[in-house]
Design brief:
single chain; about 210 residues; alpha+beta; six-stranded antiparallel β-sheet; 5 helices; binds adenosine-5'-triphosphate
């Protein structure tokens, strides 16, 4: 599986529809300081579901990420980013040779996600990439300063990096969910036992009454 295309329109400095085609070789994007190279990385994180304005280098809100206009161009009202993955090896367990993930944001704050053109929830996008190493916080995207962060992270944080890489995070999440459900079931059993206890006290007097 590999990322084969990035399509950006209206996101940050990308006023025009921009398509970056990637192949199996190394692709470099070059340009002077401030020309928008890091915006490409932000776009990838954003489409994968990043919710933190700060980590995408925005000031206040998500609408900071919609093209805000320039000397010669009016602002836009919508931003969209689409990633297309080659899945011909079926690394992601879906019956498609190509998987596209798209996020769209309107100035009124409305936010949409699509997988292969079908409207989905953020949760679906997150689950699609869980344990593939492609998640928004996984280490397939290494930004400026991230290497330092890996080395200076706490043992616990580093453990979760290794777990994601080893592909067990999905099972850990499911285990936690199952344990939560078990706890809830235990509570319910306790409540039922209380009710049974109460009802049992009433059985004997009722039996006597019914005999009378
Ligand atoms: P550096 O070399 O310093 O890392 P860079 O080439 O990675 O820079 P970025 O930091 O990605 O550049 O680009 C920032 C540019 O994006 C700035 O020029 C900024 O004005 C522009 N920009 C960010 N958000 C918007 C927006 N909403 N509308 C228009 N332009 C934007």
């Amino acid at each position: 599986m590999y990322l084969k295309e990035i399509e950006i329109l209206g996101f940050k400095s990308f006023a025009d529809k921009t398509v970056i085609t990637l192949d199996n070789d190394v692709t470099c994007v070059v340009g002077p300081n401030g020309s928008g190279k890091s915006n490409v990385v932000d776009a990838i994180r954003w489409v994968l579901g990043e919710q933190s304005v700060k980590s995408l280098r925005g000031d206040n809100s998500m609408s900071d990420f919609i093209f805000s206009g320039s000397k010669n161009r009016n602002p836009l009202n919508v931003a969209s980013v689409m990633l297309t993955f080659d899945n011909s090896d079926h690394y992601v367990n879906m019956p498609y040779n190509e998987i596209s993930v798209k996020r769209r944001l309107y100035r009124n704050g409305e936010n949409e996600y699509f997988i292969n053109g079908e409207k989905v929830r953020l949760k679906d996008v997150t689950e699609l990439f869980l344990d593939t190493g492609i998640g928004k916080s996984s280490f397939s995207i290494i930004g400026q300063g991230d290497i330092g962060k890996i080395f200076s992270s706490s043992n616990l944080e580093r453990r979760s990096i290794l777990e994601e890489a080893a592909g067990i995070l999905k099972y850990k999440t499911r285990r936690e969910e199952a344990l939560r459900k078990l706890d809830k079931t235990d509570d319910n059993i306790e409540r039922i036992n209380d009710i049974i206890g109460e009802l049992e006290q009433r059985v004997e007097p009722l039996r006597i009454q019914s005999e009378k």
